[in-house]
Specification:
By secondary structure, this protein is α/β, with parallel strands linked by helices. It is built from 22 helices and 16 strands. A hairpin with a 4-residue loop joins β7 and β8.
Length: 528
């Protein structure tokens, strides 16, 4: 019996065999042709890689789908493509040119003084490895699990966990990943135990062995003794029985200790409508924000978008669904995706989305929220496009809903300061993006540790208070979205300020509800 210590990034306890992800050697027996042929090979590999990623995206959920979406965007980014093209023109092989671009683009992210963005360098490595494997004639799916197994690797790429049958991956062990890595994020979303930073060489050592992965205590035990194995199985049985008990929090009303009601909504992605019923089962009243950037990046047309939005509405079982139009700020922190802004700001793209939303609106309780609005003039400009789309659909004789409530996303400090004017210009409701408003107010591309960058920092709370006052004076509802796990404690301050509607990821619903129902507004006056 041998035991290793690691960093627990997703809790749980599991016993099973270890399968190691071995990437093997690349670059063997390459023959470099003339630049024209190498460029043609590269362009063909890009087409095949994007096709593979889109097929994977069809079966991905939540953040997994977003990861694939931005990998596709990287392959379409002009700066990325030009870097490779210049190196091929200088006489390099296409595979070597992609490897060089991988080093440059991933290196830029690794040098950023932000843990979250630094971890995103693995996205670049993942998608570049896919293109290189295509050019080298290597298979992209390196393992096929035939039984429930624990995956081990020196460093996980996002695609390492895509494509496996449900229930086949029961745990994750990584030598180098951190708690903000994709491996950790995906493990938490999949609800499987995971250990990171177990030390160099551990993945190779435990490969093929039976282990006990105890992510409750941060240990990995290889070839456990009969006594430890029996103790572990007893603990697993106790945990199984505990899960069978009904969760009293799920049935508890959304009310604080003093009886103040609040509403909990969940967020989703339009490319994965199957996550919507799961959010409703977890206690969400409805879907407070559906992200749609994938439609612009994938170049989805009006008809395709109509079906995507209709699927979201059908999945909601009649519950309200708020869909956010394409947000050019949604790729913030991903330095290789600058082309996304041009795509989602194009007038034809905006109008195609508006028409698709109006057509899908006949399927259920739809609301539309528009991001990146700085003032009333910007709002009126968007509404002019909306009216033009309505007129076009009428002229076509298409079935559509023209009276869909349209609201403004308060993600910029300017929008927060001018919320009253935006409402006066026709916004039917407001959605405050807690994440973006905090980032833009505090001047950071991603929320860093420390009170200055918290969602309940004095500057952000002052803006929020102004939004709530403007909305209350005009009888308009306000919802707060972009609430992550780190923001949950700060939402009690929002509730004291007057917030009553919150939207978060499904995984945060329970913790947010627990924090809010434990609050007594009579005993805890608002802090200035």
């Amino acid at each position: 019996m041998k035991r290793f210590q690691g960093l627990s990034v997703s809790p749980g306890l599991v016993e099973g065999p270890v399968v190691r992800i071995d990437r093997g050697a690349v670059g063997l027996h390459r023959i470099v042709s003339d630049p024209f042929r190498e460029r043609a090979l590269y362009e063909a590999a890009i087409v095949l890689a994007k096709d593979e990623l889109r097929r994977l995206q069809q079966h991905a959920c939540g953040q997994d789908a977003d990861i694939l979406m931005f990998q596709i965007a990287l392959l379409e980014d002009d700066s990325f493509t030009n870097e490779i093209g210049d190196y091929i023109a200088a006489g390099a092989g296409s595979a070597a040119a992609v490897e060089r671009a991988e080093q440059i683009f991933a290196g830029r992210l690794r040098n950023v003084d932000d843990d979250y963005i630094r971890e995103r360098s693995v996205d670049v490595c993942d998608v570049c490895r896919r293109v290189v494997d295509i050019l080298d004639g290597r298979p992209r799916r390196r393992l096929h699990l035939t039984e429930p197994s624990i995956l081990a690797a020196d460093l996980f790429y996002p695609s390492d966990m895509f494509g496996q049958e449900p229930g086949k991956i029961i745990g994750i062990v990584s030598e180098r990943d951190s708690e903000t890595s994709h491996a950790a994020i995906m493990a938490r979303s999949m609800g499987i135990p995971a250990l990171c930073q177990v030390g160099d060489g551990v993945a190779e050592t435990v490969a093929g062995h039976r282990v006990i992965l105890d992510a409750e205590n941060g240990t990995l035990t290889m070839d456990p003794s009969p006594e430890y194995l029996e103790e572990t199985r007893r603990r697993l049985e106790e945990m199984r029985r505990a899960k069978q008990q009904p969760d009293p929090l799920l049935k508890a009303p959304c009310r604080t200790k003093d009886g103040t009601p609040f509403t909990l909504l969940a967020s989703a992605n339009c490319s994965t409508p199957q996550t919507i019923p799961l959010a409703l089962e977890a206690g969400a009243f409805g879907i407070g924000l559906v992200r749609t950037e994938s439609v612009a990046i994938e170049g989805a047309g009006e008809d395709e978008q109509t079906e995507l939005y209709s699927a979201c509405l059908r999945s909601s079982g009649g519950k309200p669904v708020t869909i956010r139009t394409c947000d050019w700020g949604a790729d913030d922190g991903r330095q290789w995706c600058y082309g996304v802004r041009e795509q989602v700001c194009d007038e034809s793209v905006v109008m195609a989305q508006f028409r698709a939303l109006m057509r899908a609106g006949t399927e259920g309780d739809l609301r539309i929220v528009i991001p990146m609005i700085a003032d009333a003039e910007a709002w009126r400009s968007r509404m002019e496009l909306f009216d033009r789309c309505r007129a076009e659909l009428e002229q076509r004789g298409a079935a559509f809903r023209g009276d869909i409530p349209v609201g403004c996303l308060i993600d910029l400090p300017a929008a927060a300061l001018l919320a009253g004017e935006i409402i006066d210009s026709g916004a039917r409701f407001l959605v405050v993006d807690v994440n973006d408003l905090t980032r833009y107010t505090c001047g950071t591309t991603h929320k860093e540790a420390g009170p200055a960058y918290r969602a309940d920092s004095p500057a952000v709370l002052r803006l929020v208070r102004g939004v709530l006052e403007a909305a209350k004076a005009r009888g308009v509802q306000v919802c707060f979205c972009g609430v992550g796990q780190a923001d949950v404690p700060g939402m009690t301050a929002y509730l004291r300020t007057g917030a009553r509607n919150f939207c978060t990821e499904t995984s945060c619903l329970a913790s947010l509800k627990a924090a809010l129902i434990d609050l007594d507004l009579r005993a805890e006056p608002e802090k200035e």
